[in-house]
Amino acid sequence: MNTAILIFTVCIILFITDKFKPSTVAMLGCILMICFGVCSPEKALSGFTNDIVLIVFGTEIFGVAFFECGLGGLIASWIIRFSQGKEKRVIVTAGCTAAILSAFLNNQVVCSMMMVICLSISKTKSSIASKNIILPVIICAILGGQCTLIGAPATLIASSMALDSTGNGITMFELLPLGLSIFAAVMLMMYFFSYRKGIEIWGKDDLPSDDPDIESVSGQLDKRKAAVTLFAALVMLVLFISGIVSVGAASVIGALICLLGRAVDEKKALRQTDWNIIIWLGCSIGLAGALCESGAVQKISSRLCSIFPENTPAIVLLAVFVIITVLISNLLANTTTVIMILPFSIEIADKFGLSPTPFVIAVTMAAGLSIMTPLSCGFIGMTMRAGYKFKDYIRYGWSIQLTSMLMIIGLTPAMFPFRG
Length: 420
What we know:
This protein is an all-alpha fold and 420 residues long. It has helices spanning 2-17, 22-35, 41-44, 51-68, 71-83, 87-104, 107-124, 130-145, 153-166, 176-202, 223-242, 247-260, 266-272, 275-294, 296-307, 314-329, 334-351, 357-368, 378-381, 390-415.
């Protein structure tokens, strides 16, 4: 048990220091768990048989096809026309577009695409400063990814861990009511308050107009490839909603439609697929499973339980975990935070005789919506390219962070009761 905790601690330190790729650290953790007899090889590598790997693999290929056929460039052109040179309108239009795409695609792909689109828009319209639109749009993409099971890696990991621990994972659209409520509130905040706050923080300074990556969204729409890609999207959506097959199988079916329909070249799709993410997710799931199997989670949870009196209200327990999750996930990657916090929240919910579901949902949402520092996730970190300073994220994001945190604490018990 102590060995498992030591290995897990080493992995967390390596995650924090960022000396190695997350996939390498996760692999190291799994191998050490096996070598020191903490768990069997089957348990440590069980993540690679998980539905999550299929989901990421399928949506990665679909994402390549989506942008390869020219639909990404079409979206950029539409946003430019609709905004009419007004920054607030760009934030609303591009933000809603990013949120919808992130709900059904890997949000890393969407954030990368929206970053380029925002740069393209600011170059096309001199009245639009990239700093005033990039961070809000990326935040919207992150919010959209928290509305479905497949939108964010942290949610996929949380679902798998919850399924292993409680027998119930997160379903495809289970997060939608809560995620949509938070998205609506944050969008209103950005439109009426945060937009002006942003201008006060960083002013109208902008990027040079000769950025070499700005033109990468341009290109002609290939109607045949676009038709195949949209058909694949429709099939996936039907399968997601109907539940005829698992979400992972549905994602792979969509990818196969794109490949068989030649919406994207097979070699190019496989080459552009982020295998680091797939390896990282598979090993992270195995690492978390090994930690639980060793009994370390139960031991630490018992000590945490002793801190709280037996009559502690459930809402207080939930609030504590949300606050801890937000604080940690603003310093670590949100996926790492989920792996750290979720097992303990589930165990404590069980010891207090509460349903684990609201704790799973609250921790998952809190980790995924941490946006006050560029350390919280790669999507926020990539926006530093626009010239934001570290303190800019705190000054701009604290009110958004506080709003989302309070909404998670207040709405989660209403949507997912503590008992029942």
